[in-house]
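FORM 12-B: Structure-to-Sequence Request
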């Protein structure tokens, strides 16, 4: 029994602590719960916003995150919201590590924190079955363009040009 408890403690320590655990020296991962989607939409209303749903266990996400980090760095006029939407497990430690490695720690970062993830996905888009990566481009006027699968940087640049033109 002692070995089992020690193994569990070791595993939790290696994977970044308990879900929702925060320390003051690390950047914030906001818990994405029921109603969070409306908070995101309200807080970014009128601003071009890229919302990216990704996961630590998602292979294409690992390739795409550094590209999104560079896109964010190159285009500070765009709000970038990252939502870790892994089903199980969704742990803060590995999530933070991937965001930091990709240069996304200064983005607005969320992590699914509700055991009923289907409800969270339904609030975002009733047709979404949970496939990641998934990117939502929300225009100044609230128009949403959905990219299922990896987002291509030329497509993001084209959208950005459209947003700049709409501002004039």
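FORM 12-B RESPONSE
SEQUENCE OUT:
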């Amino acid at each position: 029994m002692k070995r089992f408890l020690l193994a569990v403690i070791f595993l939790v320590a290696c994977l970044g602590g308990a879900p929702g655990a925060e320390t003051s020296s690390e950047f914030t991962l906001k818990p994405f719960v029921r109603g969070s989607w409306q908070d995101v939409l309200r807080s970014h209303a009128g601003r071009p916003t890229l919302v990216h749903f990704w996961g630590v266990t998602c292979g294409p996400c690992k390739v795409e995150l550094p590209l999104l980090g560079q896109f964010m760095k190159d285009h500070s006029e765009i709000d970038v919201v990252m939502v870790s939407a892994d089903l199980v497990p969704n742990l803060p430690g590995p999530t933070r590590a991937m965001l930091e490695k990709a240069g996304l720690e200064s983005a607005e970062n969320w992590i699914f924190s509700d055991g009923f993830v289907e409800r969270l996905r339904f609030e975002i888009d009733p047709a979404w079955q949970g496939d990641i990566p998934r990117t939502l481009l929300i225009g100044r006027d609230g128009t949403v363009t959905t990219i299922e699968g990896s987002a291509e940087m030329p497509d993001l640049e084209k959208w950005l040009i459209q947003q700049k033109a709409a501002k004039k």
